[in-house]
Amino acid sequence: MEVEKVQVVASSFLSKGAIPAEYIRPEQEQPSVTTYHGPVPTIPTVDLGDADREGLVRAVAAASREWGLFQVVNHGIPAEVIVELQRVGKEFFELPAEEKEKYASPPGSQSLEGYGTQVQKEIDGKKSWVDHLFNKVWPPSSIDYKYWPTNPPAYREANEEYVKHIRKVANKLFGCLSQGLGLEEDAMKKALGGDDLQYNLKINYYPPCPRPDLALGVPPHTDLCALTLLVPNEIPGLQVLKDRKWYDAAYIPNALIVHIGDQVEILSNGEYRSVVHRTTVNKEKARMSWPVFLEPPMDWVVGPLPQLLTNGEGDDQGSGNPPKYKAKKFRDYMHCKLNKLPQ
Length: 343
Prior knowledge:
This protein is 27% helix and 20% strand. It contains 9 helices and 14 strands. It has an 8-stranded mixed sheet with strand order 1-2-10-7-12-5-4-3. Strands 6-11-8-9 form a 4-stranded antiparallel sheet, with no helix packed on it. Helix 3 crosses helix 6 and helix 4 packs across helix 6. The protein is globular, with a radius of gyration of 20 Å.
């Protein structure tokens, strides 16, 4: 498969100190040229265990407005649950290629699930230095276990245990985001489908790269989902675009990284921002991450929350808060995003 070549390329080119041309990003995207090397502003860290609810809501809302990304500590997920999630994921990617290929989508499949699937088109024929596994993990009715590895044997148990905890974190964050807009605590989750919210787990595997100055694991993008909750390993690589500069996100042990996605930006009518980010790669070590993407059901219509909208009538200044985004089914939004079509 296409993505499997990344690992083959990595092993065959490491000793040569070179990479094929299709992995070399345009100069305006190359990390060596575009990464900011001055004083780095601090990406917000939010204590999710803070007993001061009003303070917690303010912290989440401020980070979502200013950055679109923050890290959460004291999130309530036991350390051993995250360690086990990482262990089974790492073991899977260390398996022989033919073992991993058992979980690939069949040729011509429209499913995004499985091993090695390309999720998004790249422009100009460029390739990303990444391999991945993609599984739907909640609700139970959406799960297709044929894409879940049985090797390592503990993969299913580890992931199901993690999902129990990450759902609690998501509910707390949605509550804070809603209240940060002056709405009822359940407003945002309801507007995204309530208990029918889809949770998709993706394991990203970035092999060692002989020219990390020229390649990217993932090119600049925003996430099309509502929220992304991500567990990284200790190898840095996430970069955030702010004020037209690319900043490195510091690694904080035991923290989760929260990305505001496109659907939350739409719901908030632009009050919260979907973060532009990318991933760099490492010459010596493999980087891994475990993002969970929270998405509305495919036929769910998402648009700016009506409670936030005003048309400015009767206002001499013509101000107000008219809708800045079209309401549309999530499947239509997703189709346009993945195929780089106008929304």
